[in-house]
Write a structure and sequence with these properties.
The complex is a heterotetramer. Chain A is mainly α. Chain A has helices at 3-33, 41-61, 68-93, 98-121, 147-152, 157-175, 177-187, 189-194, 199-226, 237-247, 252-271, 276-279, 283-302; strands at 135-136, 155-156. Chain A has a single domain (3-128, 175-304), classed as ABC transporter involved in vitamin B12 uptake, BtuC, CATH 1.10.3470. Chain A is 71% helix and 1% strand. In chain A, helix 1 runs parallel beside helix 6 (157-175) and helix 7 (177-187) packs across helix 9 (199-226). By secondary structure, chain B is α/β, with parallel strands linked by helices. Chain B has a six-stranded mixed sheet with strand order 6-9-10-3-11-12, sandwiched between helices. Chain B is globular. Helices cover 43% and strands 19% of the residues of chain C. Chain C has twelve helices and 14 strands. In chain C, the strands form three sheets. Chain C has a six-stranded parallel sheet, with helices on both faces. Chain C has a six-stranded mixed sheet with strand order 7-6-8-9-12-14, with helices on both faces. In chain C, strands 10-11 form a two-stranded antiparallel ribbon. The longest helix of chain C has 17 residues, at 156-172. The N and C termini of chain C lie far apart (56 Å). Chain D is mainly alpha-helical. Chain D has a single domain (8-289), classed as ABC transporter involved in vitamin B12 uptake, BtuC (Orthogonal Bundle). Chain D has helices spanning 8-21, 23-48, 56-73, 79-108, 112-135, 154-159, 168-185, 187-197, 199-204, 209-235, 248-258, 263-287, 291-307, 309-321, and strands spanning 136-137, 141-142. The longest helix of chain D has 30 residues, at 79-108. The chains are: A mainly alpha, B alpha/beta, C alpha/beta, D mainly alpha. Chains A and D meet through helix 3, helix 4, helix 10 and helix 13 of A and helix 4, helix 5, helix 11 and helix 13 of D. The structure holds adenosine-5'-triphosphate (2 copies) and magnesium ion (2 copies). One adenosine-5'-triphosphate (ATP) is lined by residues 39-40, 44, 86, 401-405, 431 of chain B. Chain B: InterPro entries: AAA+_ATPase, ABC_carbohydrate_import_ATPase, ABC_transporter-like_ATP-bd, ABC_transporter-like_CS, P-loop_NTPase. Chain B: It comes from Pseudalkalibacillus berkeleyi. Chain B: This is ABC transporter ATP-binding protein. Chain B: GO terms for molecular function: ATP binding.
Chain lengths: 320, 508, 338, 324
């Protein structure tokens, strides 16, 4: 294979594989920026993938046609946000340990989704979806020589939606009053409280946004990559998104970069097995290369990451 | 009489303690009203009630004559009450402007209009003489400026009743002077101020009236014009307090600490200590006077091994300890009462007992063969708590739950008890009430009298002048003068600290 | 199992006890995994229907959530008095072995692997034979002469698929080149997509997957390419995967060229029947190949050319007759290819 | 359960009767508890020292492989040497796997959550590859370990009606005691906890912060490695090629936090988890309740317990007294 051919495979797959991670990591940014650890991203994504598959399927039967996946996205966003309320209620109102509550969310999603799949479809997984998000050329941009086909040819719209959302989230968090308050709540909730910012409300909104984004991430995975939902559709992607968020230093664009990096490393490790030179390397080294590369990147040039200061601590009025 | 604030018979309980027991506070329009009391007397609690952070069990609050129910800081804000908290409520990685506008951001097409906000901040800051850099990050600015940001926050919200909870505890004398000017300007504008402070001098200087609380109970309100420091102090503590520390002249002996041409870089890589030389002898207290940020922290950190020095030497009792690890320095005979008690001095989540052996846990009798001797540790802690009058429910109480004054006493107990040849005390009385200060000063002098060397770093001139046998003035990382406290005036010292060379005085 | 149920069950159970009861333990995929668990369960259901048994009483299954659940599940069924207990999947080999050693009176059957005990019947399939047939189709219908094989996890079992397939491809089309890659995972659809993208990118136009859930990514990639006008195919595995490959629902068009089906249902039904009749094949290895209709090519033949079908039929006969020996290991393939 | 159309009474009877009365299920419950206790200890130990170890899963896998390797490859040793040696191998392998995130955290401030997640995947692929390349036996697994390295016991199996109960539970309880002792009774524990709470103060007190971060991750990893050894030497007697994670490491997070990171609490929480998981299998068999329902129940229990102020209060009391 020549270089263009290799890049032509690696880059588009990197971008498409990254989309669910980007979205979910953005959700994580919201929650953790507000001071609520969200290890439940995995469960939220699972719920999103389930909703994505179920409502795309029903969308098809209800005659929504190719709009079915988009309909399912809306549902995944809504239900993801509602589902994340459990984490919000436990960890914000009842001041439960945020990690425990997140772990519980993961358990709950794992049980509930498959339980519901069995109830609804009388099978261990949803049927295969006919209406999915399919690849297409991005108009105009894909005509640019060399980089056009690489970056914009035969791509998923959802990938570009995810990338665009990263910028939107960046704008929200760093440019709007909402974002200012959100960050204040995550850094120093008492300061925010004394300035009239409702800490509880902000954290609820942030956690629900994380549910919405992770739900969307899961739904995108189901409708563009797996094509159905089974017990193993979401197996670790939520944790990778968590890692991307931390790798990206709790910054939306950082998370975007980290997710793309994961995607690139992943697709390189897979495609690498078909590249003559890399073929000679034992299989296992290619398999672990995305993870090792991430660790090296962190140790080499990313280094210290400062979490929001109040992260993990329930807010109690007047507590010192 | 018309009061702008009237708190009547306020009662506030915390589990196991009555923090405010029928306290009444009446503030007139346009006055600076002092609130005085020992550490833990209930001052902050009372103010937090007024600001809506706590709900009182009993009592009523009137603002400008109207009975109000302040259930939330928002309501207090709307009533024109602003509060500068004892522990600053600032988001460290936000800019000054962001901190000020938080919650009431000017908007422009959905976006925070930072430019407009910064302009407004500049306007207010000019109006009241509160110098700040609107675009600086809080973590990069001095405590004094942070304080001004806190005040600006309330003014930005249009507050005309300001509560300042111990605003001067962390300020340098210069900054205190500025703050006093600012307060005067504020009342001239018709605002009213409630000021909490342990510094009676400040009360005498700026306040009109003073309300005293002791152990949660209101003792009474006096006109400052008709009282004096001693009366206030005894009202607050319940006994007489002496202000000038009694001490015999010292008898300095051999040199204990010898610093030669020391250079230390700060976190940003700039030399904070520049060719500094200093020696401290056994049996004397050397006070280091200087404006914050002239290399004091870096000097202490270099001596104690918490920061590397780039050149020069430090020796203790004739032995090199330059760039030794903290533990080696400690074992060589250095005790250190750190400036930031929460960051360095204590593990807040450890019990007070465990904190008492922070420097010695690995030695006998507290452990043997890597095994802790728990009973020895807690016996020791009990003895120290007794000896230094640390007020804590038990040795098993988390250090976090103690009041600042008692936390400080615990640290001092730990460091003094090891009887180090050199005791470094950095701002040992910050935020403490006069009774506690008296106690700590007497401990430092006791150490000196036991032939130990003591190095005292303080921004408080009165403290330095009262306690030290010699005063070394630090300016831009150098000792610019060594003076005798008995022969120098506060004004002269102030000039030296500001870098003026003319009035050089003293032995060298 | 549990004491309470044994004690309190009363005479309804007694009646059932007289009847012949069968049950199975699934792996973590569950009974409706659209793969061999499901297929095995369909076999049991069929057996139940034929013998007028009640589900959950006469025939039953237990699902495992983790590898460590196999043994308690097997034990549980034995203790509930099932006359024959199936373990589905080679991962259960060790557990069947242990339980069978302990419960000498119970009868077991293991699918996809071998336990040499008198009370265990081992059921295996000649996947290489079925793979050979779909290999023929791939070899004939590839226009680029480049063909891909994606395995789930590199193992002796999946090697049977790979080698049989390669042998079929080369038999039909000696010029063809076969790309092989193992995903290292049966459940990573994203990986499946990437590997498929790589293969198609290198010019392959047919990919055979034996990779479970990872395979659904292969279909995703193929459908995408088909929609963008590329002429690519996927060959499904274990059951007829025509539906997975549908890209045009109205026209019922699928990227699934054909599938290699593995009739676990037939095998389960067959062994259940034999056992009921008192011919429990304990200690034996019952092999299901082309001859027994245990493996074969999927019934949906929409996309398979006449020529290919003819060749498939021809070779099926040769294999059954023993004229062609399909390789299953790397070594056998090497000598086959000589 | 009522709402989902299953018979609740029958189901709960099935759940509780077996985990308390049927010797087979008691045996299986205890067997299931064993690795859960150890992985819970691993998570808790790191937590106590201010670190979040999501890498228990990976550390468990390498520990499993190392112990099985020693169990297979070393011959002719008496059991009282061979077993400890194999467990030690598991502990060392786990510690090594914990060393990497610990070192990177201490020296480069790399967040341990990411590195431990990445190390999980590395462990999964590396152990599989080692088994496939060097230790493969029929059935996609290694050979069985020598009987001299086995923790399984005919006696325990017989009294529990052929459950897989093995002596690993003793190891797990010893592990809990070790954690408690190490944290609360030794100077090492004092240092580890101090560093976990306040690195600045620890540095001030002359404690080597980097060393303690690394040590903490190593000890945590060692507990996880021993959890793996329990699977290898006790439950299975071999190691299979794992297509996916075992889940024991992730369960350990819930066990640790449910047990308030205390030794006793972890044993109790592991008991609850183990009981529910084994009980779930029986609920399925007897009352046809799908096992997913138990996962849901477990999740709800975690939510409930985590949200309860009672636990909060207990936890504070236990912490404050510095015991257990
Ligand atoms: N959040 C709290 N929870 C429980 N008790 C508290 C709390 N805050 C204060 N207290 C109790 O109320 C009493 C008064 O505390 P307060 O902070 O008002 O003291 P203070 O007068 O401001 O002291 P200082 O001069 O040290 O600032 C304390 O002794 C303490 O026991
Ligand atoms: N969380 C808490 N629970 C119980 N009592 C508390 C708590 N926090 C503070 N206190 C009590 O509040 C009182 C005053 O605390 P505060 O922090 O105001 O002391 P302080 O001397 O002003 O400290 P600092 O010097 O740090 O300002 C103390 O008596 C302390 O015991
Ligand atoms: Mg106070
Ligand atoms: Mg104070």
């Amino acid at each position: 294979m020549d270089l263009m051919q290799i890049l032509g495979i690696i880059i588009p797959t990197a971008i498409f594989a990254a989309a669910p991670l980007i979205l979910t990591a953005l959700g994580g940014v919201f929650s953790e920026r507000s001071g609520v650890v969200n290890i439940g991203l995995e469960g939220l994504m699972m719920m999103g993938a389930f909703i994505g598959a179920v409502f795309t399927f029903y969308g098809e039967t209800w005659g929504f046609g190719s709009a079915s996946p988009w309909f399912s996205f809306v549902m995944a966003i809504l239900i993801g946000a509602i589902f994340s309320l459990l984490h919000a209620v436990a960890s914000i109102t009842f001041k439960a340990d945020q990690v425990v509550s997140g772990v519980a969310l993961n358990f709950l999603a794992a049980g509930l989704t498959i339980f519901l799949v069995k109830k609804i479809f009388d099978a261990g997984q949803t049927p295969y979806l006919n209406e999915r998000i399919f690849k297409s050329d991005v108009p105009l941009l894909s005509d640019i020589p060399i980089i056009g086909p690489l970056l914009f040819g035969k791509a998923y719209v959802t990938s570009y939606v995810a990338i665009a959302l990263a910028f939107v989230v960046w704008f929200i968090i760093f440019k709007t009053p909402f974002g200012l308050r959100l960050r204040a709540v995550g850094e120093h909730p008492m300061a925010a409280d004394t300035m009239g910012v409702n800490v509880t409300k902000m954290r609820y909104i942030a956690v629900m946004l994380s549910g919405a984004f992770a739900g969307l991430g899961g739904a995108v995975y189901a409708t563009s990559i797996s094509g159905n939902f089974t017990h193993s559709t979401i197996a670790g992607q939520g944790f990778m998104a968590l890692a991307a968020m931390i790798f990206g230093k709790w910054h939306p664009l950082g998370a975007l970069g980290a997710a793309l990096f994961f995607g690139l490393a992943q697709s390189l490790s897979i495609t690498g097995q078909q590249i003559p030179l890399l073929k000679e390397i034992p299989h296992v080294f290619l398999l672990i290369s995305p993870y090792v590369l991430t660790i090296l990147a962190l140790a080499g040039f990313v280094g210290r990451a400062d979490a929001p200061k109040a992260i993990g601590k329930p807010y109690e009025k007047g507590k010192r | 009489m018309d009061y702008v604030i009237e708190m009547r018979e306020i009662r506030k309980e915390f589990p196991g303690i009555v923090a405010n027991d029928n306290v009444t506070l009446q503030v007139q329009k346009g006055e600076i009203h002092a609130l005085l009391g020992e550490n833990g007397a209930g001052k902050s609690t009372l103010m937090n009630v007024l600001f809506g952070l706590y709900q009182p069990e009993k009592g009523e609050i009137r603002v400008r004559g109207e009975k109000v129910d302040i259930t939330d800081p928002n309501i207090a804000n709307n009533l024109g009450i602003g509060m500068v908290h004892q522990h600053f409520m600032l988001v460290e990685n936000f800019t000054v402007t962001e901190n000020i506008i938080l919650g009431q951001e000017p908007k422009n097409r959905g976006q925070v209009d930072i430019k407009k906000a910064a302009k407004k901040v500049e306007e207010i800051s000019r109006q009241y003489g509160l110098r700040v850099d609107p675009y600086a990050k809080i973590e990069d600015i001095s405590v004094g400026m942070q304080q001004r940001v806190e005040i600006l926050k309330t003014l930005y919200r249009g507050a005309d009743i300001l509560i300042l909870d111990e605003p001067t505890a962390v300020l340098t004398p210069q900054e205190i002077k500025e703050l006093i000017q600012i307060m005067k300007r504020l009342i001239a504008e018709g605002k009213s101020i409630i000021l909490i402070t342990h510094k009676l001098k400040e009360i005498m200087e700026v306040c009109h009236r003073c309300t005293v609380i002791r152990r949660g109970k209101g003792i009474g309100t006096v006109d400052v014009a008709n009282t004096n420091r001693d009366e206030l102090a005894s009202m607050m503590v319940g006994r007489d307090v002496s202000f000038t520390t009694e001490k015999e002249p010292g008898h300095p002996k051999q040199t204990v600490l010898e610093i030669k041409d020391l250079v230390v870089k700060d976190a940003r890589g700039v030399s904070a200590v520049n060719d500094l030389s200093l020696s401290v002898r056994a049996g004397e207290i050397i006070g280091i006077a200087g404006v914050d940020g002239n290399g004091q922290s870096e000097l202490i950190e270099a001596i104690t091994g918490l920061r590397k020095s780039t050149s020069g030497s430090i020796s203790l009792n004739g032995k090199e300890i330059t760039n030794h690890k903290p533990r080696k320095v400690t074992e060589a005979g250095v005790g250190h009462i750190p400036q930031d008690r929460h960051k360095h001095g204590l593990v807040l989540d450890f019990s007070i007992g465990e904190n008492m052996v922070l420097q010695t846990y690995y030695q006998e009798p507290f452990s043997k063969f890597n095994q802790l001797k728990i009973s020895n540790i807690f016996d020791k802690a009990k003895a120290l708590i007794e000896q230094f009058d640390v007020r804590t429910p038990s040795v098993h109480t988390e250090a976090r739950a103690l009041s600042g004054g008692n936390q400080q006493k615990a640290i001092i107990a730990r460091e003094v008890d090891r009887s180090p040849d050199l005791l470094i005390a950095a701002q040992p009385t910050r935020g403490l009430d006069v009774g506690a200060i008296e106690f700590i000063h007497s401990k430092l002098i006791q150490e000196r009298d036991a032939n130990k060397a003591v190095l005292l770093i303080s921004f408080e001139l009165e403290e330095v002048m009262n306690v030290s046998d010699r005063i070394a003035v630090i300016y831009e990382g150098k000792i610019v003068a060594i003076v005798d406290p008995k022969e120098v005036t506060e004004q002269e010292l102030g000039l030296l600290m500001a870098g003026s060379k003319q009035s050089e005085k003293g032995e060298e | 199992a549990c004491g309470s149920d044994d004690a309190g069950s009363g005479d309804t159970d007694k009646k059932e006890d007289d009847k012949f009861k069968v049950a199975m333990v699934t792996d973590t995929g569950g009974v409706d995994d659209k793969s061999f668990n499901q297929s095995a369960w369909e076999g049991l259901q069929e057996f139940g229907k034929e013998n007028d048994l009640k589900e959950k009483e006469g025939y039953n299954y237990l699902q495992s959530n983790a590898q460590s659940d196999y043994r308690p599940n097997l034990n549980n069924l034995v203790r509930q008095g099932y006359d024959l207990v199936f373990g589905i999947g080679f991962l259960m080999q060790e557990d069947i072995q242990k339980v069978a050693e302990q419960q000498k009176d119970a009868q077991f059957a293991l699918v996809d692997s071998v336990v040499e005990l008198d009370n265990v019947a081992s059921i295996t399939f000649k996947e290489h034979q079925g793979s050979f047939l779909v290999g023929l189709v791939a070899g004939l219908q590839s226009k680029t002469n480049k063909i891909g094989f994606i395995g789930g996890v590199d193992s002796a079992l999946i090697k049977k698929f790979e080698n049989g397939f390669k042998a079929g491809v080369l038999t039909a089309n000696p010029d063809a080149e076969v790309f092989v890659q193992y995903a290292g995972d049966f459940n990573d659809a994203a990986k499946g997509t990437t590997i498929a993208a790589t293969f198609y990118g290198k010019g392959a136009d047919v990919i055979y997957h034996a990779a479970g859930g990872t395979g659904s990514g292969v279909f995703t990639e193929a459908i995408n390419r088909k929609k963008n006008g590329e002429d690519v195919w996927v060959i499904g595995v274990d059951r007829d995967q025509f539906a997975e490959g549908i890209y045009d629902k109205a026209e019922n068009k699928s990227v699934t060229l054909t599938s290699m089906v593995k009739r676990v249902d037939t095998a389960v039904l067959e062994v259940s029947k034999q056992t009921k009749e008192g011919n429990f094949p304990g200690g034996e290895v019952v092999e299901f190949g082309l001859e027994e209709d245990g493996v074969g090519i999927a019934p949906t033949e929409d996309n398979v050319s006449e020529e290919a079908l003819k060749m498939v039929k021809e070779y099926k006969e040769k294999i059954v007759a023993g004229d062609v020996e399909v390789p299953m290991t790397d070594d056998e393939f090497a000598s086959f290819n000589k | 359960m009522l709402t989902s159309g299953y018979e609740p009474i029958k189901a709960y009877t099935a759940l509780f009767s077996v985990i308390f009365t049927d010797s087979y299920f008691i045996g299986e419950t205890v067997r299931q508890m064993t690795p859960l206790i150890l992985s819970g200890l691993a998570v808790a130990f790191a937590f106590r020292t201010g670190l979040f170890n999501i890498g228990v899963e990976g550390q468990l896998l390498v520990g499993w492989l190392a112990s099985v390797y020693v169990g297979i490859a070393v011959e002719g040793l008496p059991a009282f040497i061979h077993i400890p040696l194999a467990i030690l191998a598991g502990a060392l392998a786990g510690a090594l796997w914990g060393l990497v995130p610990g070192y990177l955290k201490a020296k480069f401030m790399v967040h341990e959550v990411i590195t431990t997640i990445m190390m999980n995947y590395v462990a999964l692929h590396v152990t599989n590859s080692i088994i496939r390349s060097y230790l493969l036996a029929p059935g996609e697994r290694t050979e069985e370990i020598q009987s001299s390295a086995s923790l399984s016991s005919m006696f325990l199996q017989e009294i529990t009606d052929f459950s897989r109960l093995h002596y690993g539970i003793v190891v797990a309880i010893l592990g809990a005691i070790v954690m408690w002792y190490l944290l609360w009774k030794t100077t090492t524990g004092y240092e580890l906890r101090a560093v976990g709470f306040n690195q600045h103060a620890s540095n001030y007190a002359g404690i080597n912060v980097s060393k303690n971060i690394i040590l903490s991750m190593c000890i945590s990893g060692a507990f996880a490695g021993v959890a793996g050894a329990m699977e290898g030497l006790g439950t299975y007697q071999y190691m299979t090629i794992n297509a996916a994670f075992t889940g024991v490491g992730f369960d350990g997070i819930a066990v640790a936090l449910l047990g308030a990171n205390s030794a006793i609490g972890i044993i109790l929480a592991a008991g609850l988890f183990g009981g529910l998981k084994i009980g779930a299998l029986n609920m399925q068999a007897v009352a046809q309740v799908p096992p997913e329902l138990i996962t849901i129940v477990i999740a709800l229990i975690i939510f409930f317990v985590a949200s309860s102020y009672l636990v909060h209060w207990l936890r504070n009391r236990i912490n404050r007294r510095g015991k257990i």
